[in-house]
Specification:
heterotrimer, A mainly alpha (455), B alpha/beta (759), C alpha+beta (299), A: Formate dehydrogenase/DMSO reductase fold, C: 299 residues, alpha+beta, two-stranded antiparallel sheet, 17% strand, globular, binds ligand MGD, binds iron/sulfur cluster
């Protein structure tokens, strides 16, 4: 196993290392950036085409009214949960190891929410009229339908997005100040002076900072839980077999945390390599993240079992049919793919040696994400193929290349945002890493002095 | 009898009725506005974007034109031209354009109802593929030139060298055509229908003394139909459907009627039957005779001459020949004996054989034995004016024309309302023979196969633009008026879409003027001719006490002229001497299956194939759209290893087609069925290339008595081509089963419900 | 625009459950479809195309399930026995062997059931699909943003989405076919949901005419296009509140209660009634009553 963060690392070096990541991008950075742009432009092209000719281009039909767009929307929403989990929950729990990795996890939250938002738009038949769903006062006294879970959805996401941006921003203020103070003069310096809001690191500032940060964190936790519960409501509040499932809210939340954690592992490994953050993103941290992910994987698996057994032993024949059809019909490869990726692959994380193996964990985390994406697809699509009304059953639907193209493009968009972010905001929290190092050195010192305990 | 009549909007009088308040307009003015001066008006209607685009004229509120009150629809009556049943329609007209066709509630034929085919008449009218100018070998020419050319080609040609092929005709256009043929000195008017009840007419004539009696489905307690698809495509389907609605009413004095359908391929009527029986194809007549035997056994008294005819056809024997169980035959006999009056019908599926007339006669005999003749089979009244009475079409007419063409006899051939190049069997080599004619003139609304083969094409008005009259061959009557007959008027519902189209009447008049200028010079156009012809007979048409103007306005207002029909009489004594039915043929081992070309209720003989509503209206039985198909029984398919969607080749001795296989439980296992009307090679964007043409592969077997093509005498083999597609159809993978959900389409037995008090 | 405004608005906008609410003081449009007389002829469907400007989508789009028929005629076969155990995902390629054709087939016209507690309405984020005071599930094309949630939640799957721009880009009405279009209603473009409206333009005209004549709407004042064309009068349509209306009589006679999800008929084993509503147990309170198909067992 690799080493944990050194307790004797100099604070100046921390500044140095992290700020370096803001400047002089490596070749690899550009490669990733341009690849992301390319992928994104494929998605944009598909969307322009779809916008022009109509949603028929996505090859959806009656009854397959929703497809990959909604599935991928849920996927990205889900992804956004990890940031909050790591940052807010672990912060409240004083889990030290979150410190080097929470910043990028929060960024992930923000960007995946922004990506998810795109899918809401892409999905709309008349996206140019999207604002009808916004509750703005109008002289005609028309309001959106507050009864519709889709509306709650929109509001929840908006709230979550704005809170996450605030949380991310607040948490970064001390680092902006460091950047302001250490970076070469130029436009960046000006930018950081504005962003730092005159941070001087006075006692009063620190006190206010801590209170504010804690408050927002407390606010964000129930919000995060509610967001995915509300997304679950889109389904659970409907009447459709396979959707009208009582356990959907916790199931969705678990799935969200799961996919988020998996994504953190992926990004952890990428950042660590691209920005040479081996000093901070250490293997023990990876190990902890992996263990957390495994725990959530098991929760998710358990909730899956609950869903299936409840349906199986219920007298609701229609819901049962949908389940059987999922498991044995044309969707079977994807359904079992989901089970494999979501419930079997995580057992690789039980193997101690692999918990800190970069290549293995990289592969595993990617597979977990594939599984979680499949999960969303398997929630959305099969219900349409095999609903209440046998006459309208249709097992032959397949998304068009346009639909796949937009889904594909969204990964480009996310990566693009993330790559740009890494060059503007320090992706490792410098001041918190310093805190961590300080605590550790304190503990070490105490140990050396033969004193009991540590922090 | 008519429920939910749309009385408020019906035109009883000359006054068109507006949708809102009734407005009293003068009918003549309307016609002037629309009928002649109306081209610009017609085109000024709003398209879906007209006002926004500002491209087209908006109807003015300030200077209103009569009959064009913006936003108020006006109904005008006319007559459907989509099939030969002659339903009376009303067209909703707004801002100078016809929008929608509805049934005329005052019509005894369709009683306010209209089939899908009839409603698609507006798409024939607004069809984007209509012929818009006279065409000489594809090049647009003027009418003067076209008519001049005809005169030139007829110059020096003898009467017998001219032939005129039409579809079923009646009314004043028919009278005018008769005059034209006389003027030419020709007797070669061939009346052809690709699908016609010619065999039935012949059998009826023998058995009832009339060729087209009135069938009283509404009065029957049991209807036993041998392949008569009276709810789908047989004779006058809307009228029969209305009668059927009465027949199924539990609150009727006769109680809910029972329908039994015997046919090898389930038609729409079969689908609605209480019992559908797939007798072996061709054995329908025998089954009828066996039923007579069984009725005798059950105690019904059978006349001795009938007993002599039927004695060999014992239920035991016939059960083996037909594949219908002995018990089933006896059950049917019992039912027929207990529930009287009944009605026995013979339709295309029983008549399409070399012994088709005999089959139909045997079936009619059952009506006699059961005492239905005079009760549920009534004599219809004849039309008092023979020159406008319908000349019903047949297949044999085409055979006759074809023979003449083959011998190179005809120098000039006209066609109107018929598309033989498409619908003649390939073996008859019709199109080859047709090309032998010196000069071919097609009156056509579309460039169909026959028009394409013609030298000169004369563009026809649509049925929403032309003047004509029509006498339906099947003469329905209002309740209690047995002697009723009617003349239906077809009048323009709007101005011409294209200035250069003409009604058939106008063209014939112009041609007659070439021959007999003096006699016809008084008629400016066909409208003038028609008006004069009707006004001359005003008294006979029931307008004796009526002022001329009023009578004419009333006539156009209702578009139905009741006639005092010539009483028909039905004979109680059938002509059955020397009557015998052949033993069923055993299948030829190399062509083991019987081909049943089916008549789909919307595609019929294919003349309306270019109307998109019909192409997208799913076939009721298979729910397939936009293509033809091959129906195969699942058992037969399993033996041949055929799955749904396999492209199969169906081969007869005379030709073959390729189409998609559809596994269909409603077909005799020894038969396959392909719908007619598809597989056009021309005609327009919606028809061309859609499906396969089953007419082309029919074997040249003819009914022995009438010479009609025996439709069901083609034997085929079927093979897989290896290709497979997903059939485009309405039903999903559940294929019309309710799998687990029993409460969607529920079926109960008649004894489980109380129908007698239902509203 | 105050909060109280909003709330007031809101409560009028959204009716309560039909049992608690009294939205139908004057009119409640309803329909009866007699499956014993429906012959499956499709005339109603064509009439709806003509009346309501439905585009013909063509073979390719039909194949993709993008057809736009507001009323579809379903064809059912008799089954050897209704199987409790079945395999819901076999591709049904060969299962026809179980189908029985000897009592014919049965047809069922399926159109929007104009549910009183419509599952489609509650979920629409913009309130584009709504309940009217005459008991219809209305559809406001201009308001619809095309989220398709309504269709997702409709148990009958009778909502049709404009996947393409039929009037312009898809050329569904090449010249001069647009001249046929009914000017009383719009032609819908891409991205909008649509469905049977019970021929809203007709009921609306009938109500206006009655109002200007100072009288209530009488039975027969209005026919839907499908009802009007139906050759066997299988469809009746009218005002359920009017005791003289044929529909009201039929519902009453069949003892079908709009506000119940289980009817007399289902309670008793030996009833002599045949009125039922489809998927009633899901409690959408459909406004269409079907009459069971009858078959004579003596043959
Ligand atoms: N969509 C939606 N989600 C919800 C709620 C909601 O109202 N709507 N409510 C929330 C609340 S308050 C609760 S308590 C939970 C309830 O959550 P669940 O306990 O999951 O509730 P149900 O769906 O009522 O019941 C589960 C299944 O049990 C079946 N069942 C009924 N009787 C029996 C039996 O005797 N044996 C067996 N084996 N099965 C049986 C039912 O058919 C049903 O499919 O859901 C929560 N989530
Ligand atoms: N047939 C059948 N009946 C069942 C069940 C079943 O499965 N089948 N499940 C049972 C179960 S498990 C449960 S939990 C119950 C649920 O039954 P209820 O507790 O009646 O649940 P809700 O329908 O959710 O209604 C709660 C009401 O509270 C309002 N409300 C929401 N938020 C607030 C708030 O902050 N303050 C106040 N004062 N009001 C608020 C809502 O608008 C709503 O009107 O139903 C039980 N009944
Ligand atoms: S049955 Fe024939 S005449 Fe009558 S409406 Fe239909 S197509 Fe027209
Ligand atoms: S049938 Fe469907 S679309 Fe119609 S009201 Fe009910 S839920 Fe809505
Ligand atoms: S598709 Fe239109 S009507 Fe349906 S839920 Fe979305 S916005 Fe509402
Ligand atoms: S009621 Fe009107 S809109 Fe509804 S299906 Fe019938 S014709 Fe179409
Ligand atoms: S028109 Fe009438 S009979 Fe024909 S399918 Fe429609 S409801 Fe049935």
């Amino acid at each position: 196993m690799g080493k944990d963060i050194r307790e004797d690392i100099a604070w100046a070096q921390i500044n140095n290392d992290v700020l370096k990541s803001l400047e002089n991008p490596r070749k690899l950075y550009w490669v990733i950036l341009f690849a992301a742009m390319l992928v994104f432009s494929v998605g944009v092209g598909c969307e322009i085409y779809q916008y022009n000719v109509g949603l028929g281009a996505a090859n959806m039909d009656n009854p397959h009214m929703w497809g990959l767009y909604i599935a991928t929307f849920i996927f990205w929403i889900g992804m956004s949960h990890s940031g909050t989990l790591l940052s807010a929950i672990l912060h409240l729990m004083h889990a030290d190891w979150r410190k080097p990795i929470y910043r990028f996890a929060e960024a992930m939250t923000t960007f995946s929410l922004m990506t998810a938002g795109l899918f809401v738009m892409v999905h709309l038949g008349r996206l140019w009229q999207f604002y009808y769903a916004v509750p703005y006062p109008s002289e005609r006294w028309t309001w959106p339908n507050f009864q519709s879970p889709l509306l709650w959805d929109a509001m929840a996401i908006f709230t979550y997005l704005s809170s996450s941006v605030i949380f991310l921003y607040i948490g970064s203020i001390p680092d902006f100040a460091i950047a302001r103070d250490n970076i070469h003069p130029g436009w960046r310096k000006k930018l950081y002076s504005i962003l730092a809001l005159g941070w001087e690191g006075t006692d009063r500032q620190w006190r206010n900072f801590r209170v504010t940060y804690l408050t927002v964190a407390c606010f964000l936790i129930p919000l995060a839980v509610s967001v995915h519960s509300i997304v679950a409501s889109d389904f659970a509040m409907s009447q459709q077999p396979g959707w009208h499932v009582t356990s959907f809210p916790p199931y969705f939340v678990a799935g969200a945390l799961y996919s988020g954690c998996a994504a953190i592992i992926t990004l952890f490994i990428i950042l660590r390599y691209v920005f040479k953050f081996e000093e901070y993103m250490t293997l023990p941290i990876l190990k902890k993240t992996v263990r957390l992910t495994f725990a959530i994987a098991m929760v998710w698996t358990y909730l899956n079992c609950i869903e299936f057994t409840a349906t199986w032993y219920s007298h609701d024949q229609v819901a049962k049919d949908v389940l059987i059809q999922k498991a044995t019909g044309p969707y079977a490869p994807f359904f079992w793919g989901m089970i494999f990726c979501g419930s079997v692959v995580p057992f690789a994380m039980m193997v101690k040696k692999w918990q800190t193996s970069i290549p293995v964990m990289f592969a595993v985390s990617l597979l977990l994400n594939v599984g979680m994406w499949l999960e969303r697809w398997m929630i959305v699509a099969p219900t349409y193929s095999h609903g209440y009304y046998p006459w309208t059953w249709d097992h032959n639907q397949w998304p068009s290349l346009i639909q796949w193209g937009i889904v594909f493009g969204s990964f480009g968009w996310f990566t693009l945002l993330f790559m740009v972010f890494c060059k503007i905001v320090p992706s490792v929290s410098m001041y918190e890493v310093k805190e961590m190092v300080y605590h550790r050195s304190l503990a070490k010192k105490k140990e050396e002095l033969g004193l009991e305990g540590g922090h | 009898m008519i429920e939910n009549g749309f009385d408020e909007t019906t035109s009883h009088s000359a006054k068109p009725q507006s949708e809102g308040q009734a407005a009293g307009y003068n009918r003549r003015d309307f016609l002037k506005t629309l009928g002649w001066g109306g081209t610009a008006v017609a085109l000024s209607g709003c398209g879906n974007t007209s006002i926004e685009n500002g491209k087209e004229t908006v109807v003015s509120y300030v200077e209103p034109t009569d009959y064009q009150i913006p936003s108020i629809g006006v109904y005008y009556n006319s007559t459907c031209a989509q099939c030969d049943a002659g339903c009376n329609i009303m067209g909703r007209v707004r801002e100078g354009r016809v929008l929608k066709l509805e049934g005329n509630p005052n019509s005894p034929v369709n009683r306010g109802k209209l089939c899908g085919l009839g409603q698609a008449g507006v798409q024939a009218h607004y069809n984007p593929d209509r012929v818009r100018q006279p065409l000489l070998k594809g090049e647009a020419i003027t009418w003067d030139k076209a008519l001049g050319l005809i005169a030139e080609k007829l110059n020096g040609v003898k009467g017998e060298e001219v032939a005129f092929l039409t579809g079923t005709m009646s009314g004043h256009v028919r009278a005018l055509l008769g005059n034209y043929m006389d003027a030419l000195g020709s007797k070669n008017h061939f009346v052809y229908e690709a699908v016609s009840p010619a065999v039935e007419r012949a059998a009826n004539k023998k058995m009832y003394g009339v060729s087209m009696p009135r069938y009283r489905i509404d009065k029957a307690k049991v209807v036993l139909s041998f392949g008569a698809d009276f709810l789908g495509a047989w004779i006058s389907p809307v009228n029969f459907s209305q009668q059927y609605a009465q027949f199924r009413k539990g609150s009727r004095p006769e109680g809910r009627g029972v329908l039994v359908q015997i046919e090898p391929k389930m038609s729409l009527t079969g689908a609605n039957a209480d019992r559908w029986i797939a007798a072996r194809p061709g054995t329908e007549g025998m089954l009828a005779l066996a039923l007579i035997n069984a009725l005798g056994t059950a105690g019904l008294s059978i006349p001795t001459d009938v007993t002599a005819v039927v004695k060999d056809y014992t239920p035991e024997r016939v059960s083996l020949d037909t594949g219908v169980s002995f018990e089933q035959i006896n059950r049917l006999a019992k039912l027929l004996k207990e529930r009287s009056p009944s009605l026995i019908l013979a339709g295309g599926a029983a008549e399409g054989y070399a012994h088709g007339t005999q089959n139909a006669m045997a079936i009619a005999l059952l009506n006699h034995v059961l005492g239905n003749v005079g009760k549920t089979v009534e004599a219809a009244a004849g039309v008092p004016f023979p020159q406008i009475a319908p000349i019903p079409g047949s297949r044999s007419a085409l055979t006759a024309l074809g023979n003449g063409l083959a011998s190179g006899k005809y120098k000039v051939v006209f066609t109107y309302g018929a598309n033989p190049v498409y619908s003649a069997p390939a073996v008859s080599k019709f199109s080859e023979n047709f090309s032998k004619a010196g000069f071919k003139v097609a009156f056509a609304q579309y460039l169909d196969e026959t028009a394409l083969a013609a030298d000169l094409v004369l563009p026809l008005d649509s049925a929403m633009e032309e003047w004509a009259t029509e006498v339906p061959e099947y003469m329905a009557a209002p309740e209690g008026n047995v002697g009723y007959a009617q003349l239906s008027v077809r009048q323009p519902l709007m101005g011409r879409l294209y200035p250069d189209t003409r009604g058939a009447g106008d063209i014939l008049l112009a041609l007659l003027k070439q021959r007999k200028a003096d006699e016809y010079k008084g008629f400016e156009d066909f409208y003038a001719y028609l008006q004069s012809a009707i006004m001359k007979n005003k008294a006979a048409l029931g307008g004796a006490d009526c002022a001329d103007d009023k009578f004419w306005n009333d006539t156009l207002g209702s578009a139905i002229l009741p006639l005092k029909g010539v009483a028909g009489s039905i004979s109680a004594k059938p002509a059955i001497a020397g009557f015998a039915l052949p033993a069923p043929v055993t299948a030829d081992a190399s062509y083991p299956l019987r081909l049943i070309p089916s008549i789909s209720h919307s595609m019929r003989d294919g003349r309306n194939a270019n109307e998109p509503w019909l192409q997208e209206s799913p076939d009721p039985m298979t729910t397939i759209v936009w293509d033809s198909w091959v129906e195969i029984h699942p058992k037969t398919a399993a033996q041949l290893g055929i799955r749904e969607g396999d492209i199969v080749e169906v081969t007869s001795k005379s030709g073959s087609i390729k189409s998609q296989a559809y596994l269909f439980p409603g077909i005799h296992p020894d038969a396959v069925s392909v719908p007619m009307g598809y597989g056009h090679q021309a005609m327009g964007r919606y028809a061309k290339g859609v499906g396969a043409n089953v007419f082309a592969m029919l074997d040249p077997v003819y009914d022995k008595e009438t010479g009609e093509l025996a439709y069901h005498e083609t034997s085929v083999k079927i093979s897989k081509t290896g290709e497979r597609i997903i059939i485009v159809k309405e039903e999903g993978p559940a294929r019309g089963s309710q799998v687990g959900r029993k409460k969607i389409a529920v079926k109960v037995s008649a004894d489980k419900v109380d129908l007698s008090k239902e509203v | 625009m105050s909060v109280s405004n909003l709330l007031q608005n809101w409560s009028t906008f959204r009716h309560e459950h039909p049992i608690n609410d009294k939205p139908h003081a004057e009119i409640k449009w309803a329909m009866t479809i007699d499956l014993d007389t429906c012959i499956g002829c499709n005339a109603c469907s064509v009439a709806c195309y003509a009346e309501n400007n439905l585009p013909v989508v063509g073979k390719e789009k039909y194949a993709h399930g993008q057809s736009m028929h507001w009323i579809r005629i379903e064809r059912y076969w008799g089954e050897t026995e209704v199987k409790e155990e079945y395999d819901p995902n076999s591709n049904f390629d060969m299962v026809q062997q179980d189908f029985q054709a000897d009592q014919g087939a049965q047809f069922l016209p399926m159109l929007c059931q104009q549910c009183e507690a419509a599952p489609c309405e509650t979920v629409c984020p913009v309130g584009a699909t709504n309940h009217t005071e005459d008991g219809l599930n209305s559809q406001i094309y201009n308001r619809c943003i095309g989220s398709r949630y309504c269709s997702a939640n409709c148990p009958f799957k009778v909502r049709y989405f404009n996947w393409w721009n039929y009037p312009e880009q898809e050329n569904a009405w090449p010249e001069p076919l647009p001249l046929q279009l009914n000017p009383d209603l719009t032609v819908r473009t891409k991205g909008v949901m649509e469905k049977c409206t019970f021929c809203k333009q007709r009921t609306y005209t009938a109500r206006n005419n009655a109002r200007s004549e100072g009288r209530p709407v009488h039975d027969g004042d209005v026919q839907t296009a499908c009802q009007q064309s139906c050759p066997t009068n299988a469809i009746s349509f009218g005002n359920l509140v009017d005791p003289e209306a044929r529909v009201a009589k039929q519902w009453e006679q069949q003892q079908v209660d709009l506000a119940k999800e289980k009817q007399e008929k289902d309670e008793k084993a030996d009833n002599k009634l045949r009125g039922y509503r489809i998927l009633e147990e899901l409690r959408p309170y459909p406004s269409i009553m079907y009459l069971e198909r009858v078959r004579e067992s003596a043959v």
